[in-house]
Design brief:
The chain is α/β, with parallel strands linked by helices and 463 residues long. Helix content is 43%, strand content 16%.
Length: 463
Amino acid sequence: MTKPEYQPVTIAYIGGGSLNWAPGLMADLAADDRLAAEVRLYDLDAGAAQRNAAMGARFAEVSTGQAARYSVAGSLAEALRGADVVVVSILPGRFEDMAQDIGIPARYGIPQAVGDTVGPGGFVRAMRAIPMLAEIGAAIGEHAPNAYVCNLTNPMSVLTGALFAAFPGIRAWGECHEVTKLRKQVAWIANRAAGAEVATHRDVAVNVMGVNHFTFVDRISLGGRNMMPAYRAFVEEFADAGWTAQPVDPEDEHSRYFEDRSRVKFDLTRRFGIAAAAGDRHLVEFLPADQYLHDPAGWDFGLTPVDYRLRDQAEKAARATALADGTASPVAKRSDEALIDQIAALMGGGAHLSNVNLPNTGQVENLPIGAVVETNALFSGLGVQAVHAGRLPDALAAITADHADRQSALLKAVLAGEAGALFPLFHADPLVAPLEEAKARAMFSEMVAATSAWLPETLRGAA
């Protein structure tokens, strides 16, 4: 039997102490039979990077293909030099900062399900994260200008835009798995009809358009069959009761706080005529609170408190330590993520189609040119090429374009240090707009003060 040829790839992982994306990539590499990867982990927390390097070595031991090699880089420049691919997965601030992003607006009557993309939480998170991503983008331009760059950090649209703003020649995209939820629903529909497991989400093709976490699909295909009629029937069947692949366990915190029965997704599909693709907890934050966020229990989605995220982070850290020191066993198992397929395609392993975030050059006809939008893109040895997606329904395009314009203006203001431009943008967000100006300004002042340690000097007096 001929020994397979593995494609060498050097990956610089910025935020290499990650407890979420990094272990997933390690498991994917261990299960992969295409790549021979060298992974350089760089993190401001050098101890976290060292732990993850040890964890990576454990995954390498159970590889089904060519074992990946893991090392810790002492500087950002060291990690980047000679890299073929750069992965950016950082935490902008601390979970304690995220607690303020959610807790302060809650005192002003503004609930948030996630608080990391739009709304008051997403806005302030972007304020502290944009300079970080701009610094990384500039370093890539200096040390790895030809590398492919995947951003995994939220708020996805704004931060992917920050990479392009810092280094216009960057070969970057933003990666998000939310659309996978819709594709899994379509596979379930097909499997129920067949009475057997005949499809997975990887078999489902969708035409995606929108902005990250507010994505929609107007065409669905499986095995050459148009699945949109079947999906519309599925929506009508479960619109009132909701749908989930597995029952929510009320005793399980993760199930309870991440509950998503797709009732918002189904309602938006009915309202706008095309399928809503992202999860309910994200979709609701793009719309005024009186539509869905005022009644999460009534719409069957959960609000994820930061104290749970802190406990979950501690559990993930304990798991990573156990994997690193050998008291837990790693498993080479493919995740639902597309990143490993994207990397393999870019390294010459054949074409791959994924939904990703890229600046709009016309792939969504009725969203602003230059804004970062989410559509399909083709990955191959030729690079990352956006696929033309078409037009959103006019009413939906108006909502989406409003967010896209605000995200672009926020990015521009932060990079230019234009503190005075920030509050009007903050107040214009649909979750904040109902507050009278004095209250909105007071809330913004509190939020800026709470996160000021992470802000450039020019933005600390933004309120």
